[in-house]
UniProtKB/TrEMBL annotation, chain A:
The lineage of its organism: Bacteria, Pseudomonadati, Pseudomonadota, Alphaproteobacteria, Hyphomicrobiales. Belongs to the leucine-binding protein family. Gene3D superfamilies: 3.40.50.2300. Residues 1-24 form the signal peptide. InterPro entries: BCAA_transport, Leu-bd, Peripla_BP_I. This is ABC transporter substrate-binding protein. It holds the Pfam family Peripla_BP_6. Coiled coil: none annotated. GO terms for biological process: amino acid transport. Residues 29-362 form the Leucine-binding protein domain. It comes from Salinarimonas ramus. It comes from the Bacteria. Keywords: Amino-acid transport, Signal, Transport.
Automatic annotation (TrEMBL), chain B:
It comes from Salinarimonas ramus. The keyword Iron does not apply. It comes from the Bacteria. It is found in: Cell membrane. Residues 1-20 are annotated as: Disordered. One of its GO terms (molecular function) is branched-chain amino acid transmembrane transporter activity. CDD domains: TM_PBP1_LivM_like (cd06581). This is Branched-chain amino acid ABC transporter permease. It is a multi-pass membrane protein. It holds the Pfam family BPD_transp_2. Coiled coil: none annotated. The chain crosses the membrane at residues 33-49, 55-74, 81-104, 110-131, 138-161, 186-206, 236-254, 274-298, 310-332. InterPro entries: ABC_transp_permease, LivM-like.
TrEMBL record, chain C:
InterPro entries: ABC_transp_permease (IPR001851), BCAA_transport_permease (IPR052157). It is a multi-pass membrane protein. It comes from Salinarimonas ramus. One of its GO terms (molecular function) is transmembrane transporter activity. This is Branched-chain amino acid ABC transporter permease. Keywords: Amino-acid transport, Cell membrane, Membrane, Transmembrane, Transmembrane helix, Transport. Pfam families: BPD_transp_2 (PF02653). It is found in: Cell membrane. It comes from the Bacteria.
Length: 393, 336, 306
């Protein structure tokens, strides 16, 4: 029987060890779980969000609305099943009041239900899929970034306003890529000369670039987040297309990719709700503090996480603590805080109503690159799904 | 290297003798002490989980049991048949998508979904196995990878079922029209029952004449052929059985996460299944369970210590490969 | 216009194939001669790219960076060989898989700790920037031509080394029958070390060469490793010639397939369906090809004779 006992004991110890490192049930009145992607090719986006959130907490003296707060960070590894286990850990083991995350829409699909079922508050600082913006909206779920389509809609509007007639669309072949093409077409009425869908994670675009060069469109619209964008931008530049065909993009040239794109991205366009050079209260201080602490220019991922912390700060203060969830939810809905973006309000589906801008790339005095505002494209813009949401009004 | 062991024929060492000193005549409880210990642990784990974070621990153990089922099925062909499938996650994915697609069409009955899972994975195993088994060794590894990748890319292009983003299930499968599986504890014991059932089934298969022929073809296919067995047929049957069991694990995985995604089918996942089997100890049936548990528990524990947990986990795997012949199980057997 | 497109895509496919060949050459030798499954071969490609980045930023010149990255990749490969791989040659394949998988985890995380997780920038050398007009209306990036040229050069060099030198003869003999070579009094361990270091350097060279066109980031070698395995089984394990041809075939099929799969399908079905099916089929093409090759020739196109 000894083998029986030993194996049994080992398994039990192993299981207990997964919870053993739990901090002793603290008397802290508030706990926030941050679940973002911290490993794999997209880790830098998650790191920005984690760092932006932490920066805000540090600036607030480790408190949200005067209540001491503990932040627990988890890595979803960009795998849905890992995310599910980890978010269960945040809810059950850490007993967090609020979950902040994730970066990617497909991870959100996996964690949305367990967080809602556990009746906790979920605030997404980046992923804003259409799936929870319409009929499936939920009083416990907020998005502080944007509805995914909106950024692409900005580019469609820009292409339309500039009178481009023939546009080439190049996006990765996955849901967000297809949504992006659909978003672009919502305001663009000209001809789409070709729509090319590349494999997700593709790093060599020579085939597609050759096709673009051959078609000679008025402009290119593309959506290539992360490493794909780094490669596309540099290869677009090397192929000599940058000066001939305007490069309109979403999530392709931003602070997460600029350190690797550098000069190659100059003259290319993106769409965003914010840029580091924006003249809003507190923005310059935020950018300076982030650079000082992390040595990089913050991107929208960091800004949105920072805003999320500031939103919570204001809401906890207004609700007089985090214990009364109804009061806290009500206070979050009013969004009575100073966003780095300037105007910010929640729509009835609890996705933001905000302004959108065309941005391009500039070099800072310290030699680093950043996005900068060119012009405002949409004013106080909500998403098209909100009307299907039965909440509020 | 002159006869069968060319580089192309994967050299897969015979696992250490079964269950060490305990003979086949020993009482069941002695022979299967390890398995019983693990099952006993699983049976009372929900009680242990009461100490705190119950839902988290349950979901972790459920995940470990589901991956243990998938790893067990791989062990049948890998450990006993020396057939290294590098596309095994495809079967898990077929199970997932059988549930997901039927759910999307409002077919939520557990038995219908399970039947669809088993039929689909058996059919896929039959077709791909019939082709793959013509090749040997490393070529077999790669051709199974090819089929796995095909399923992967197929699911990413299923735009109607979420494409890359995956598909959220409205609920778990219904049993006779009831939502009894929504209760986590009920679901937990269903998974455990599946694990025990699969283990018992595989143990029986391995001990049968069929299992002996399979092992014989692993050691020396030429000799088996000479004495009148057609290795191809036996291997194909084993491949189909393994595929169906992996499909079952996918069925459970989809119900556990209530979400299906191509991410479950990527070649990295197939690789992880191989790692679980080898880490625990292949060709033992207990090993894959130990491997799946160690893999997932270690990941959770190390990730709590540092975000750079792979810096520790990687070298650990190297150490196991270097110093623990026969994986974790082999290591402790020899010490005992 | 269409002809130009086909021409450009063919060049692109060649360039991709050349990179694949540089990785696959080492892999097929290590596998063929040492009977060793090295999953960590892909991270050696990644390490080469990171070395190129580090030395390029240090010296300020890509040429110097590349020159320094090569010996660094070699030393790194030899270090890995001495520390870990040497002790794995006698183990069975799956233990090798386990150990080299562990090394992948460690090194992918390691470069992240050292260099961060953001993609890194390596500039294209000044004199190779821009495009060359091959003929009227037909541009091609100079740097990609340079990759094709350098890769062909390395392939020729390998051909000479393997076919006309004593070490090459031993490698060929080792690929056919390592035990016999050892029995004839050749120091097989040293031969293994040379083959291994050389393979690591080739992979590192490939990584360094692509650093200016692809982003340098953790895990960049993982998917290429799988493609390199596809190449070596199609080519026949242990065969350099097979690896070369298979690499070019895979490069061309993948590149041309991605561009033209939809167009070709449009001949048979309506345009909407064609582009949907084309998108699904294009990434599968190389795997379908591999399955087909192995179905008809279960030991690859150029099996090494034993």
């Amino acid at each position: 029987m000894t083998r029986f006992t030993r194996t049994f004991a080992a398994a039990t110890l192993g299981l207990l060890a997964t919870t053993a490192l739990t901090h002793a049930q603290s008397t802290d009145p508030m706990k926030v779980g941050v679940i973002v992607t911290l490993s794999g090719p997209a880790a830098s986006l998650g790191e920005q969000a984690r760092d932006g959130f932490q920066l805000a907490i540090d600036q607030l003296g480790g408190e949200l609305g005067g209540v001491p707060v503990e932040v627990v960070v988890a890595d979803d590894e960009q795998k849905p099943d890992v995310a599910l286990t980890r978010v269960n850990g945040l809810i059950e083991r850490e007993d967090v009041d609020v979950v902040v995350g994730p970066i990617f829409s497909n991870i959100l699909q996996a964690i949305h239900k367990p967080v809602m079922d556990a009746d906790r508050i979920l605030i997404s600082p980046n992923a804003g899929p259409s799936s929870y913006a319409g009929a499936e909206c939920n009083p416990n779920f907020f998005v502080t970034s944007y509805q995914n389509d909106q950024v692409h809609e900005v580019m469609g509007r820009v292409a339309q306003d500039r009178g481009y007639e023939r546009v080439f669309i190049l996006v990765p072949n996955y849901q967000a890529g297809r949504d992006s093409a659909a978003g672009f077409k919502r305001h663009f009425e000209g001809e789409i000369v070709d729509e090319v869908y590349t494999q997700l994670g593709q790093l060599d675009f020579s085939a597609e670039l050759a096709r673009i060069a051959a078609m000679q469109p008025d402009a290119l619209f593309t959506f290539m987040p992360g490493g794909m964008g780094v490669n596309l931008v540099r290869q677009y530049n090397q192929a000599g297309l940058k000066d001939r065909i305007p490069f309109l993009s979403a999530f392709t040239v931003d602070e997460s990719t600029l350190p690797a794109q550098q000069d190659a991205a100059m003259g290319m366009f993106g769409a965003m709700t914010w840029a580091p050079d924006m003249d809003t209260p507190g923005n310059a201080e935020f950018v300076a503090a982030y650079i000082e602490k992390y040595g990089k220019v913050p991107g929208s991922y960091a800004m949105q996480a920072y805003d999320t912390a500031m939103l919570l700060d204001a809401a906890v203060e207004a609700a007089g603590g985090a214990d009364d969830q109804e009061a806290l939810l009500e206070a979050i809905r009013t969004a009575d805080f100073q966003s780095l973006r300037g105007d910010f309000a929640f729509n009835n589906n609890q996705y933001p109503i905000q302004d959108f801008y065309l941005v391009d790339i500039g070099q800072r005095e310290d030699g680093m690159y950043q996005t900068q505002i060119v012009e405002q494209v949409f004013d106080d813009y909500g998403d098209v799904y909100a009307s299907e949401c039965q909440m509020g009004g | 290297m002159l006869d069968t062991a060319s580089p192309a024929a994967a050299k897969v060492a015979a696992p250490p003798p079964e269950a060490g000193a305990t003979s086949a005549r020993a009482p069941l409880i002695r022979r299967e002490a390890l398995a019983f210990a693990l099952f006993a642990f699983f049976a009372i784990a929900p009680a242990i989980a009461q100490v705190g974070a119950e839902g988290y621990l349950l979901s972790l153990v459920i995940r470990a049991m589901i991956f243990a089922i998938a790893a067990l099925s791989l062990d049948l062909i890998l450990g006993y048949g020396a057939l290294v499938s590098f596309g095994h996650a495809a079967f898990v994915g077929i199970g997932c998508y059988a549930v997901g697609i039927l759910m999307a069409h409002s077919v939520s009955d557990l038995f219908v979904q399970l039947l669809a899972t088993l039929l689909a994975s058996a059919l896929f195993a039959l077709v791909t196995g019939a082709i793959s088994l013509r090749t040997k060794g490393v070529y077999f590894i790669m051709i199974t990878l090819a089929f796995g990748q095909m399923i992967y890319f197929l699911t990413t292009s299923l735009a109607a079922y979420g494409g890359d983003d995956g598909l959220t299930l409205p609920s778990r499968s219904a049993v006779f029209g009831t939502d009894v599986l929504e209760n986590d504890l009920v679901f937990y014991y269903l998974v455990l029952a599946c694990l025990v059932g699969v283990y018992a089934l595989l143990r029986a298969i391995v001990g049968s004449r069929f299992g002996r022929v399979l092992r014989g073809t692993r050691e020396n296919p030429v000799r088996m052929q000479a004495i009148g067995y057609d290795p191809y047929r036996y291997q194909l049957v084993a491949y189909v059985i393994a595929g169906m069991i992996a499909g079952l694990s996918g069925f459970l995985l989809a119900n556990h996460i209530e979400f299906v995604s191509p991410a479950f089918i990527s070649w990295q996942r197939s690789g992880e299944l191989i790692i679980m089997v080898v880490l625990g100890g292949m060709g033992t049936l207990v090993g894959p369970i130990v491997g799946a548990m160690s893999f997932l528990f270690l990941e959770e524990i190390l990730a709590r210590i540092t975000q750079d947990w792979k810096l520790i986990f990687g070298p650990l795997l190297v150490l196991v490969a270097l110093f623990a012949r026969g994986g974790i199980l082999g290591f402790f057997r020899r010490k005992a | 216009m269409y002809t130009t497109l086909i021409l450009v895509q063919t060049l692109n496919g060649l360039q991709f194939g050349i990179i694949l060949f540089l990785i696959a050459a080492g892999l097929t030798l290590v596998f063929g001669v040492m009977d060793f499954i090295n999953l960590a071969h892909g991270v050696q490609y990644m390490i080469g790219a990171y070395f190129a980045f580090a030395f390029t930023s240090w010296t300020g010149s890509f040429g110097l960076g590349l020159l320094l990255a090569l010996p660094a990749a070699l030393v790194f490969g030899l270090l890995l060989e001495a520390l870990v791989f040497r002790h794995l040659y006698d183990k069975d394949h799956l233990e090798q898989v386990l150990a080299t998988f562990g090394i992948i985890l460690f090194l992918n995380q390691g470069v992240k700790v050292v260099w961060g997780s953001s993609p890194l920038f390596v500039p294209v050398p000044e004199f190779l920037q821009g495009s060359i007009v091959l003929f009227e209306g037909f541009f091609y990036p100079t740097y990609r031509l340079a990759i094709i040229g350098a890769g062909l050069g390395v392939a020729a060099l390998l051909y000479v080394l393997v076919n006309y030198t004593r070490a090459g003869m031993l490698v060929r003999a080792g690929a056919t029958n390592a035990k016999m070579v050892s029995a004839l009094g050749v120091d097989i361990r040293r031969l293994f070390m040379i083959v291994f270091g050389f393979g690591a350097m080739l992979a590192g060279f490939a990584g360094a060469m692509v650093a200016p066109i692809l982003s340098v980031e953790p895990g960049m070698g993982d998917n290429l490793l799988i493609l390199a395995f596809v190449v070596i089984v199609i080519g026949g394990i242990g065969s350099i010639r097979g690896a070369f041809l298979a690499a070019l075939i895979i490069g061309l099929v993948d590149t041309l397939g991605r561009t033209f799969a939809g167009d070709v399908l449009r001949l048979f079905m309506d345009p909407g369906a064609a582009s949907t099916v084309g998108r699904a089929v294009a990434p599968m093409l190389i795997y379908i090809l591999m399955a087909a090759v192995l179905f008809f020739r279960p030991a690859g196109l150029f099996p090494v004779k034993r």
